[in-house]
Amino acid sequence: MRTLLNTLYVTPPHAYLHLDNDTVRIEVERETKLRVPLHHLGGIVVFGNVLVSPALMHRLADQGQSLVLLDGNGRFKARMEGPVSGNILLRRAQHEKAGDGAFALGVARACVAGKLRNCRQVLLRGAREAKEAADGAALSRGADDLAAALRALPTAGDLDTVRGIEGEAARQYFGCLNFLVRAEARKDFTLDGRTRRPPRDRMNALLSFLYSMLMNDCRSALESVGLDPQLGFRMRCGRGVPPSRWT
Questions:
Q1: Cα–Cα distance for residue pair 120/131, rounded to 1 Å
Q2: Which residues contact 164 (CB under 8 A, 6 or more apart)?
Q3: pTM for the whole thing?
Q4: Tens of pLDDT along 129-138?
Q5: Which fold has domain 2-80?
């Protein structure tokens, strides 16, 4: 069990969460393991076979705090929350903007640019901290490749081109991840290509787990200001994009 920022993550199987006045009390085998004041939390995420009392569910809904259910492997199952904030005019404007090709392209460029900048900073920091010269050189080359992708983004004239730039940059980034892992740990944490549903190694399992938590936080941020989290700008609308690929 751990609280990250204002989200409580509960992982022990058969844990029981219930409301104790204005506190969330977590019990495992009838023993209290943790108490967290409810007003400190923005949401609760539970993994696998974890029980949540109806009283706690009602209080979370009344206070606009989310309850997210993931399976034991961290895959998204369901989300419970109270009424969506904001108003229909805001969501209507969001849907209209999604139909504006120039606006959608600009948003997609900005989102991908932010992603690539962050990836590049990870590689540059890894290059500076690398213990082996070969690892540092590989990470520096990867950072240079991402810099080239960033330079190409402003000239991307359509969403397909943006997605192509992002896909190639992601291939280069994931190709460098092994060099970020300490040499003595690479036997256990080696990325041999990105795999999902199911992830085929520990590194992919870790990435999928973190993506599930990130997706939940992004959705919460969108809903907290009244936006529709099912409408993205990098993906074309109307294709039944699953939650793990919302943008």
A1: 19
A2: none
A3: 0.63
A4: 888 888 889 8
A5: Ribosomal Protein L15; Chain: K; domain 2 (3.100.10)
